[in-house]
Amino acid sequence: MPGYLLRISTLIGMIAISPLEVRPSGAAPVPEFEVVSVKPSRALEAGQNVRLPMTFDPVKLTAKYFSLKRLIAEAYGVQNYQVSGGPGWLDSIRYDVEARATAPSKSSDLLLMLQGMLADRFRLKFHRETRTMAIRAMVLAKSGPRFLPAKAGAVKAPARPGFLRFRNLPESASRLSYFGSEFPVIDQTGLHGDFDIEINWAKVEHFVQSGESKTVGEAMASVAQEDLGLKLVMAKGPVDVIVVDHAEQASAN
After folding, report:
1. How far apart are CA 74 and CA 83, in angstroms?
2. Exposed/middle/buried for 4, CB within 10 Å: 0-12, 13-18, 19+?
């Protein structure tokens, strides 16, 4: 667990969750990768981190030890629990993917290319549904909010080392979902506007390493309540889900 936490802490402030880009009718064709390599991953050594991040440079996308389920989640800006259906190997067989574009591209365009690659190499077909699922509702604790409104016109400051920094409550809920909650986190605080919100990641690490919290999600919930006055409570709510109708294992190349 400590290695996992250290790996995640290096990503703080670097990962953003983006919704699927919808291109209008008549827009330019979606760009495609020039070269794609998909290979079965080698078995990992004991203790080696198994949740390596997807990386981007201007012309290349790299994903090491990714299941098809996680590739789908990354490509379409959702979490693993929002990908359902498909064959039994969807989340067990791991792949190493390296894909190169013809020219420097934004990460959002590389993800669009990844969507096309999944359809081509894995014969991926899916549909979308909204399902009622277990969620964590983010509400105000009895103590009230322990953060301040952002100054009018102020530019969002970069996060301090060891902290997660958010500008509004929906963003906070989205990032709490990404960084460890076992369920989608939905903002139900009723607060609107910009705020200066920070979560102390070192404190999250301490809660897990000391055994005070069993999971990263539990630790995040504890820190959010103690430091921010934001309580995460179990509830039921609508969640957008990608349902895999068909997929095939990609041949190595």
Report:
1. 11
2. middle
> CA–CA separation, 199 vs 218, rounded Å?
14
Our CA angle for 22, 26, 27, nearest 5°, is 55
Of 142, 140, 147, 97, nearest to 122 (Cα)? 97
Reported pTM: 0.69
What's the token pair of residue 171? 């963003």
Euclidean distance between CA atoms 235 and 215, whole angstroms: 19
CA nearest 136: which of 174, 190, 82?
174
Rounded distance, CA 149 to CA 167, Å?
9
> What averages of pLDDT result for each successive group of 10 residues across the chain (253 residues)?
44 37 50 91 60 85 94 91 94 93 90 95 96 92 91 73 87 77 84 90 90 85 92 90 96 71
Whether the Cβ atoms of residue 244 and residue 130 lie closer than 8 Å to each other: no
| Residue closest to 221 by CA, chosen among 207, 202, 239 | 207
Residue 86 neighbours by CB distance under 10 Å: 21
Distance CA 57, CA 179 (A): 23
Helices within 34-193 (DSSP H only)? 68-76, 107-121, 169-178
